[in-house]
Hints:
Elements: H1 2-9, H2 13-26, H3 33-46, H4 50-62, H5 70-90, H6 96-116, H7 123-136, H8 140-153, H9 159-177, H10 184-203, H11 207-226, H12 230-245, H13 250-270, H14 275-297, H15 301-315, H16 319-329, H17 336-352, H18 356-369, H19 378-389, H20 395-408, H21 415-428, H22 432-444, H23 449-465, H24 469-482, H25 487-502, H26 506-519, H27 526-539, H28 543-556, H29 561-576, H30 580-593, H31 600-613, H32 619-632, H33 639-655, H34 665-688, H35 695-711, H36 717-730, H37 735-745, H38 754-764, H39 773-785, H40 789-802, H41 816-835, H42 839-852, H43 859-872, H44 876-888, H45 894-910, H46 914-927, H47 934-951, H48 965-982, H49 989-998
Helix pairs in contact: 1-2, 2-3, 3-4, 3-5, 4-5, 5-6, 5-7, 5-14, 6-7, 7-8, 7-9, 8-9, 9-10, 9-11, 10-11, 11-12, 11-15, 12-15, 13-14, 15-16, 15-17, 16-17, 17-18, 17-19, 18-19, 19-20, 19-21, 20-21, 21-22, 21-23, 22-23, 23-24, 23-25, 24-25, 25-26, 25-27, 26-27, 27-28, 28-29, 29-30, ...
Amino acid sequence: MTAAGELFNAGRYAEAAAAYEKLLKDFPTGEFVGQAQVELANADYLAGKFDDAAAVLRKFLAAPASQSQAELLESAAALLPETLLQKASALPAADEAKRKAVFEEAAREFGAFLGKYPRGAQADSALYGRAVAYFQLSRFDEAANDLHQNLRDFSNRETAPGSQFLLALTLASQAAKTENASDPVVAKNYAEAEKLLTDLITRKPDVALANDAQFQLGEVLAARAGSQPEAARAATLARALAAYRAVEGREPVVAAQTARVAQVRQALRGAAGSRAEFQRMQSVLRREQTKLGQLQNRDDAALSARLRSAGVFYQLKKYDETRVLLAALAPLATKPADEKLVLYYTALAFAAQNAADAAVAAYERFQEKFPRDPGAENLPLALGNMFLSLPKPDAARAEKFFADFAKMYPRSRLRELALLERADALAREGKFDAARRVFDDFLKANPKRELAAAAELGRARLLQAQGDLAGALAAFKKIRDAYADRPEAGEAAFWIGAVALQMKDAAGAASELKTFLGKFPQSPLAPAAQLALGRAQAAAGDKAGAQATLAELPGKFPNSPEAAQTYFLRANWFYADKNTSEMTRVLREFIEKYPHDEKVFDAADALAAVLAAQTPPRIDEALAGYQKFLDQNGDSPKAPLALLKLAALWKKTGVELGNYLVLGEPQRAVWQKALSQSVAASERLLEIYPDSKEVAGALANLVECQRLRVGARLQTDAQVGEYFAALPEKVGAGATLRSRVRFTAARLTAEKDPAGALAEMQAAYDPNVIYAPADLDQFTTALLRAGDADAAGPVFAKAAQDYPLPNGLSPAQAPPDVQEAQALALYGQARLAEARGDADAAAEAYAKLQADYPRSNKLAEANLGLARRLVAQGKPDDALKLLSAVARTTAAPLEVRAAGLLLSAEIFRARNDLGAAIDAFLKVAAFYPNALPDAPRGLWEGAQLLENQAASLGDAPAQPNGPTRSSQLARARKAYDDLVKKYAASEFAAKARERLATLPPTTGNK
């Protein structure tokens, strides 16, 4: 016995068991046989040989016992159900039926022991053990009863902390199992579980148990958040994160538990004088040894907690944090369960962010490693819903994931929900009939009432989307009346009013919406209903009532999106009534109440526009509005735009004073201040927001301000060059902004020195830098003018790459800079196609530009290109219509308008309409003298036609005030003379000199 006991105490349980077996074999009738049998069972138990231990115990308990063996009998009776409990726990989860049977057997044996020894030395262990069995069998009420009794009757025993811990888990499981999350019992149980776990963490009666409590506190709080209203959820999840972060790793916990086992062993030796106490402490040692083994083989609790934290981040809708944490943990997640969590939440986070490609890739990796995993039922549904929520929904791909769900989880509790989502996907795909069939078939199957209500609501919304407003109205009324106790009834009541408003029944809509607000004042749809009520009242002619309704909304629902809308709607109504004082008052009120709202810039911008347009303009107030926005919202995405608006308004203030050179001194001072403030705002934008898209506008504004100062003779061209050379250093620009400054500054010299400007742009150009579309336009224009189409091609392509059309948006919906860049790219395609002689491709690109970007500053170029194609196709009348539009586009480059006028002249000449042709040719140089080479060519062609016309005329006019030979020759001489004097470098100058030498001298006749 002594040798076997020493092996046992050394933790060599298999060897100890073998020693006890030999002892029993050698001395089958010795006085220590009973003790040896119990010790053998103990050793087998700790060695994990549960069937052997149970067999020994059953044999011992079945044999006739003497009174002297009472303590052994009690100890054996306590160890048998504990052995069964551990056996059940060790069985694989897949063997559910066998696990359940063994847990039930353990519960019965614990019950038998408690019936015999209700106040015995190990009664607390038995109550705890039976509670564990009940917990595993999901018999939570019975488990809670045993645990409450244990804490009440045996509060001073070693099992008390474990009972407290298990009671917390039991209460949380009861809460999670309750179907109605609003049941007060749910909140009560979660709160009590949290309290019990927090107490264990604070008291720390056992390091390992306290660490488990820390982990489970995170689990309880994360679960509790799911049952809470939205307003309370974030705070609870934040506490869950804090709980998870405090969980310790395996090493310190194992070390603490090892020390605890040593303490219990010491206490066991001290209890040798009392057999009952010795048996009790042996039970405690057995339990602590078991826990140590479990801790040594368990996953790292800290890693598991961090993985759960990723799930909490996901619930908090912090999807970037979710993915960053998972990416950091992925190399550590080597066990299947951990890897599953990483892949699962990664896919969900990408899906929530509508990152379609990444979400699908993560989903496919998950399915490859964990196909048909029962815990991931919602994953295909999340992917399906993602494709429905994209800016440009892809219902076909969504349906593929809903089909995946149906195949993988045919008996899922989410099956009916998936059917409803599939109907939604079909509806979004425009397959309304198929969607309606899904709804109808679903309702015929007599689903649960709550799902039937959801299906009826989906069907009603489908009718509304199809434009069957009368059918939708009837369907919504049915839901309101048939499901009065369901949330869908409230939503339907709202839509009854909304649909009535769509049907232009303003009075009926107002009545229904008032009823809805009276019955559902706290509904999430209440703000939308009050907004719709205001619209309905306005449509019914009750503007005063509408104003009052909307004015009341921000007070009742200050944090709703509709609160901001009311201010803009009311401001628009006042503006339509020409009541600008009330309009400005409403906008100011919005700015004061919501200084950090995302729409506050729009309010400041609208207010500035109204103030600046008044007579006299209230520019100072408009400027102050932008400045106030910047002071309060310096970190807003709209702050760069506010600075740009401020710069533009200051410049406008100066420009509208008039020509600086004719102003008086007081006005000159104002002019100079305005320009200085405009420059300062632009420089501040470059300094604070160097990566914003508004940098392009700021640079353009600086170019214009410098031009104005040169025109006012306040500085020279050389000083402007010095200013732009010093600007990058002044604003602390990095390499990218330096390139943009130099590139933009070249625009100042483009008119006076085109070749020099092109050289400067080529030197500054960096393909890796994103430039403003206007700068790229200037660059490509210069390259084409220089005949370098090969160099222009990549720049045109870069414009499209740097400013892509956002997914789901039509060209007309794209931001202005995107429209300009895309239009420039199309223009480039057309010009390059023309250069290689592909007229059809050029016309196609020009036509697309004209159709997609009708407000582009490249429209004139497109019209000109299409006109050239029409001329080649023999459609001069159609070409002249487009050329007329080119001439009227005052914003078009002068050389484009000159080319258009020249082409018109050629059309007139081809028609033999000499008067119109001569007039058009000569106007090219008169209107666009700097357009080269078209201006000198126009003079040459016009003069040539004048000579030809003169040859057919006499000295007297054929009709009153008509041309004569001498008058046309005089006009020809003047055209040649202008060509020689103004365009001496032109190829036509030498020819003009030859003609001047042969023409007769001017006689003075006109």
